[in-house]
Design brief:
The protein is of the alpha/beta class. The chain contains 26 helices and 26 strands. Keywords: Glycosyltransferase, Transferase.
């Protein structure tokens, strides 16, 4: 039996952060971020909610308050069904931004979502992230809660990077435009921490996930998405002419000819310019069929983003070059409700649906077209291989071979019997292989083994008495942050003594407990209320130095120190630190940058050996490896919840790589000036992280003034 809530039914949280997501009139094709994924997650949420085993589904996305988009996206909650809803969480600026600009705001999204989860009656049973940005958030939430994480990639950074390089783009340009290294790092981290990876096709596993260091096919499952057969169905003799069909008359000399239909957003990767060129170079194809390209909605091409503007401009230039007026339609507008009618219009005209994308992770439009009775011609790269393989309703082509595209289209259009066979195969097999009912049944079956062995952290841990009167906290790292200037330290200590009644004081350090206690005594630093030691692996309440056993039990998940030592033992430039610097959950090395492999290579090795760990390089030469669920930032959030102190009222200060997740997110982050803070340079553009001009304790005091901390 499944292990879940008191009702005996499941609470599932789906996380899909970017794009414009709402329950009706999805603006598919509006931009590169509002496409197949947004439709997928909405349909998945609705389909899961119908299952008897499911109590509740929350689809979590980003809240957007922007006059350029609908007010719908500013609503905190939107009902999808009686037991399903869209939940919108604040993160970063209120306005709508593209997914590549979201990375600096994901820590804040994770903190806000965690706060929302704590307000719910109970923990959900599973987290399911969609795309790399949600994977980044899902990993952090899974570490902080102990909940199992499922992930669906939708499209993958390594595959995208490979194809962009093949198109001739320089790596520097790819990085600048797509932040591809952050995306790939998030994907690697997600793969190493997720319990289950759901893919749409076998090709996705073998050709795309195979590119990753943490490649574990055994925890990947092919569960194709479904299509709504109540919305997408073949035309009937009684089908009336639609508004869209009438609008095509102004484009086409003979609207009654068979239609070659392409439907996608105007994105270079969708390769619709090549399709138009292939059509323009074939008088034979032009003679027997019209080409209709539905490429999103537009009012003025000049006001669109650079990518869409470039594709649409090129389409118009190609039409003019080949003088295709009267044979090609490029309509400016269509509504989401008209999409099903467009497919039926093409099917009634004995046409074909074509997807010529350079690569297609899955291809929901192919399913919709098949359910409408259209034969398919599609790219041989990605999901269409499985779809056409299962449905036997079309042909695969090299998307860069214009001759092959033309020949595939002609072979179907010129053979009515072949058209009827492919159409019938599609109608029969799309219902057999690609229904949402089949998808959700397979999905829930895969959850069973995952939910039987997970131990969650307590949802409402006891609030310490000391925290009842204190609604603020200062947490600081020690070396090169709190320590390093005795005069500044003395002033900081006096301030802490003065504010002790209203402000909790904590230290988070990579040092062991015994070393920390010795320094506190030597420097006459008042004993903190909380000590987070050994890089977040140990939590102590210092009135009696009581260790938090629940935290130790939580981070022990998948921790295999013997295997880790064996994997790293042969690497040059890594020297184990003395025994007194090691602990049960921390393995520490001296890192010689001139001899040791780069950190990227060490990360690759750890992933390839399927080790789910959290490695940190601090001060340029201290390499510490702890369990994946441990870090200063994760321990700080655990403690903050125990004392019921909002992260927004916690001043978190650091100065090296090990402090990154402590100062990021919703804490009032502080990076003091020192020669190692370049390890935190990726936080320089984050609004809620203050880079102090002064060093050591002086930098902390400067930040207290900057935030006017004690007057919050």
């Amino acid at each position: 039996m499944l292990e879940h809530g008191d009702t005996g039914r499941l609470h599932i949280v789906l996380i899909s952060i970017h794009g414009l997501i709402r329950g009706r009139d999805l603006e598919l094709g509006r931009d590169a971020d509002t496409g197949g994924q947004t439709k997928y997650v909405v349909e998945l949420a609705k389909a899961l909610a119908k299952q008897p085993l499911v109590e509740r589904v929350d689809l979590v996305t980003r809240r957007i308050v922007d006059s350029d988009v609908s007010d719908d996206y500013a609503e905190a909650v939107e009902a999808l069904a009686e037991n399903a809803q869209i939940v919108r969480i604040d993160a970063g600026p209120e306005g709508y931004i593209r997914k590549e600009e979201l990375w600096d705001h994901l820590d804040s999204f994770a903190d806000n979502l965690l706060s929302w989860l704590h307000l719910q009656p109970r923990w959900p049973d599973v987290l399911h992230s969609h795309y790399a940005d949600a994977g980044y958030v899902g990993v952090r939430l899974a570490h902080l809660t102990g909940l199992p994480l499922i992930h669906t990639g939708h499209s993958l950074g390594r595959d995208k990077c490979r194809r962009l390089l093949a198109l001739g783009l320089a790596m520097e340009e790819i990085e600048q435009r797509y932040h591809i290294s952050r995306r790939i790092d998030a994907e690697e981290d997600t793969l190493s921490n997720a319990e289950l990876i759901i893919t749409s096709t076998r090709n996705e596993i073998e050709d795309q996930y195979e590119l990753y260091d943490y490649y574990t096919p055994e925890k990947m499952a092919v569960i194709p998405p479904g299509t709504d057969l109540e919305q997408f169905y073949p035309p009937s003799a009684k089908t009336a002419a639609s508004t869209f069909a009438i609008s095509l008359n102004k484009f086409l000399y003979d609207p009654n000819k068979p239609m070659i239909l392409a439907l996608s957003r105007p994105d270079e990767r969708k390769n619709i310019v090549t399709l138009l060129e292939a059509y323009g170079e074939s008088p034979r194809l032009q003679a027997i069929a019209n080409l209709v390209i539905v490429a999103g909605n537009r009012d003025d091409i000049r006001e669109m983003n650079d990518g869409a503007q470039g594709v649409l401009t090129e389409l118009l230039l190609v039409m003019d070059c080949y003088d295709l007026y009267g044979r090609v339609a490029l309509p400016k507008h269509h509504s989401a409700d008209e999409v099903a009618e467009i497919y039926r219009l093409a099917a009634a005209a004995k046409g074909i649906f074509i997807n010529p994308a350079l690569t297609e992770p899955f291809g929901l439009t192919l399913l919709e077209a098949a359910a409408s009775g259209l034969p398919l011609v599609a790219t041989e790269n990605g999901g269409p291989v499985d779809i056409i393989g299962n449905c036997r309703n079309g042909l695969l082509v090299d998307p860069l071979d214009k001759t092959a595209i033309v020949e595939a289209l002609l072979s179907i259009l010129e053979n009515p019997e072949h058209w009827r066979t492919l159409s019938a195969n599609g109608l029969r097999n799309v219902a057999r292989y690609y229904s949402w009912e089949a998808h959700t049944q397979a999905y829930l079956q895969k959850l069973q083994p995952l939910l039987q062995h997970f131990e969650r952290l307590p949802k409402t841990p006891p609030v310490g008495k000391v925290g009842r009167l204190r609604r603020q906290a200062i947490f600081t790292a020690m070396d090169n942050t709190l320590l390093g200037d005795d005069e500044g330290l003395a002033k900081f200590v006096n301030l802490i003594r003065e504010k002790r009644r209203k402000c909790l004081f904590g230290i988070a350090t990579g040092r062991r407990l015994d070393a920390v206690l010795a320094i506190l005594k030597q420097k006459r630093i008042p004993k903190p209320d909380i000590l987070i030691t050994s890089l977040g692996t140990e939590v102590y309440f210092t009135s009696q130095l009581i260790a938090d056993i629940a935290w130790s039990y939580h981070i022990d998940h998948l921790w295999t120190p013997q295997v880790l030592r064996r994997v790293l033992s042969g690497l040059p430039g890594l020297t184990p630190q003395p025994k007194q610097e090691q602990s049960r959950f921390k393995i520490s090395y001296y890192y010689d940058s001139e001899r040791a492999p780069p950190m990227d290579e060490i990360l690759t090795l750890l992933r390839q050996k399927e080790l789910s760990v959290n490695p940190t390089l601090s001060f340029g030469h201290f390499l510490d490896i702890v369990p994946a669920r441990a870090s200063k930032g994760q321990a700080l959030r655990y403690v903050a919840r125990q004392w019921n102190i909002p992260l927004e009222r916690i001043l978190a200060t650091g100065g090296s790589g090990g402090d990154c997740d402590m100062v990021a997110g919703n804490t009032l982050g502080v990076v003091v000036a020192n020669r190692h803070r370049e390890e935190l340079a990726n936080l320089a553009e984050v609004e809620q992280v203050y880079f102090a001009e002064r060093s050591n304790a002086w930098g902390i005091l400067e930040a207290i003034d900057h935030y006017d901390f004690f007057n919050l």
